[in-house]
């Protein structure tokens, strides 16, 4: 079965979107003077903490800079230069191999793929294909899943672990098939997403974070709470990875089944939102922790909802688009740090890892990235790296 991808109708950009975009450009011009070609993750006390090159978030800052670079009409701003320096720095990780895991997709889609899409450089293409080949090497044939992390400590065997976040890594494989004509990349991407449909999405549309398979037989062994509250809870960022990842997968595969699942997860996500449309960190966390929001989950899901609005019949499109826009507008008006020059983050109140009590109630670089991608989608003038 196939879906009809309708061309996005050119809608007038709402004034708040252009205002938010312009404020973002001004703020990133200031923050990029300090951050430069480094790899921010979470902002603490107003400044982004910089991580090592192999950390999974390394692509988001250069990705955000690429969006601004293109959205500003390739103007003579420092964004492209810094993004390319970041891409170059990532070579030590790509050549190092042992620190690579499923997050290869996040890292090279937002650096080399986006650079190649905009400028067609051979070196960027080669880097992205190399990353895609590494990602292929993590596929488990019995369980039809891409392995998540490497062992965290000597002797640990986590070769049967798969995580929902990887739904956002497989677009790299779809890109590799488009680029090379080799269908194996696409086959692995689609097999992994079928496993997501079968084992990560519950009947009510809520989403598991980690499924442990027996790596020998491919049977499900255990559900693990991971960054959510517990195995049966509903971590909001994991739900957002599923909203966007399934929607992208539906578009790439032209699959009605994937589209239906993307809609099912989106309906669950939307049904759980509080009054201001920005999710709590886990929809099934104990009440006493629910003051903690995860703005990054809102930003990511909003991008998925905007894409979903382009894939569904026109009678359904407005609902998804207005839901995506509503979330982004609330992030801008209620969570934005635009009046605060002493804060480097764009969007406040993200939660990175509640179970480990890490980076709670802070700006997160992926929250900022998806906020900017969401604005770019609403403006309709930028290459989207994952598509
Ligand atoms: N593990 C990626 C995330 O924090 O969503």
TrEMBL record:
Keyword Ribonucleoprotein recorded: no
Alphabetical list of Gene3D superfamilies matching this protein: 1.50.10.10
InterPro entries tied to this protein: 6-hairpin_glycosidase_sf (IPR008928), 6hp_glycosidase-like_sf (IPR012341), Glyco_hydro_88 (IPR010905), UG_Glycosaminoglycan_Hydrolase (IPR052369)
UniProt keyword list: Hydrolase
Record has Amino-acid biosynthesis as a keyword: no
One Pfam family this sequence matches: Glyco_hydro_88
GO molecular function terms noted in the UniProt entry: hydrolase activity
Domain of life, source organism: Bacteria
Family designation: Belongs to the glycosyl hydrolase 88 family.
Protein name per Swiss-Prot or TrEMBL: Glycosyl hydrolase family 88
Source organism (scientific name): Paenibacillus glycanilyticus
């Amino acid at each position: 079965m196939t879906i009809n991808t309708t061309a996005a109708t050119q809608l007038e950009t709402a004034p708040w979107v252009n205002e938010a975009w312009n404020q973002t450009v001004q703020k990133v011009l200031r923050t990029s003077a300090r951050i430069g070609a480094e790899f921010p993750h979470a902002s603490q006390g107003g400044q982004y903490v910089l991580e090592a090159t192999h950390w999974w978030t390394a692509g988001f800052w250069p990705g955000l800079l690429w969006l601004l670079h293109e959205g500003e009409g390739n103007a003579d701003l420092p964004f492209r230069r810094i993004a390319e320096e970041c891409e170059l720095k990532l070579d030590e990780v790509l050549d190092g191999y042992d620190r690579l895991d499923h997050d290869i997709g996040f890292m090279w889609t937002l650096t080399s793929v986006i650079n190649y899409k905009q400028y067609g450089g051979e070196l960027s293409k080669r880097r992205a294909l190399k990353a895609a080949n590494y990602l292929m090497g993590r596929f488990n044939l019995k369980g039809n899943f891409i392995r998540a992390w490497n062992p965290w400590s000597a002797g640990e065997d986590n070769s049967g672990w798969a995580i929902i976040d990887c739904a956002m890594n497989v677009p790299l494989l779809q890109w590799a098939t488009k680029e090379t004509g080799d269908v194996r990349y696409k086959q692995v991407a689609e097999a992994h997403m079928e496993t997501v449909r079968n084992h990560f999405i519950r009947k009510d549309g809520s989403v598991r974070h980690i499924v442990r398979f027996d790596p020998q037989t491919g049977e499900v062994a255990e559900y693990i709470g991971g960054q959510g509250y517990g195995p049966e809870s509903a971590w909001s960022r994991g739900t957002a990875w599923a909203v966007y990842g399934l929607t992208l997968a539906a578009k790439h595969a032209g699959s009605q089944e994937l589209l239906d699942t993307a809609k099912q997860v989106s309906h669950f996500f939307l049904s759980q939102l509080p009054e201001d449309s920005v999710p709590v960190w886990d929809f099934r966390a104990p009440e006493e922790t629910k003051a903690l929001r995860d703005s990054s989950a809102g930003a990511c899901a909003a991008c998925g909802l905007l894409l979903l609005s382009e894939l569904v019949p026109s009678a359904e499109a407005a609902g998804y688009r207005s839901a995506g826009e509503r979330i982004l507008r609330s992030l801008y008006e209620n969570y934005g740090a635009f009046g605060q020059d002493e804060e480097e983050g764009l969007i406040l109140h993200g939660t990175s890892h509640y179970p480990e009590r890490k980076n709670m109630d802070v700006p997160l670089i992926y929250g900022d990235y998806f906020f900017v991608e969401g604005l770019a989608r609403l403006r309709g003038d930028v290459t989207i790296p994952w598509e």
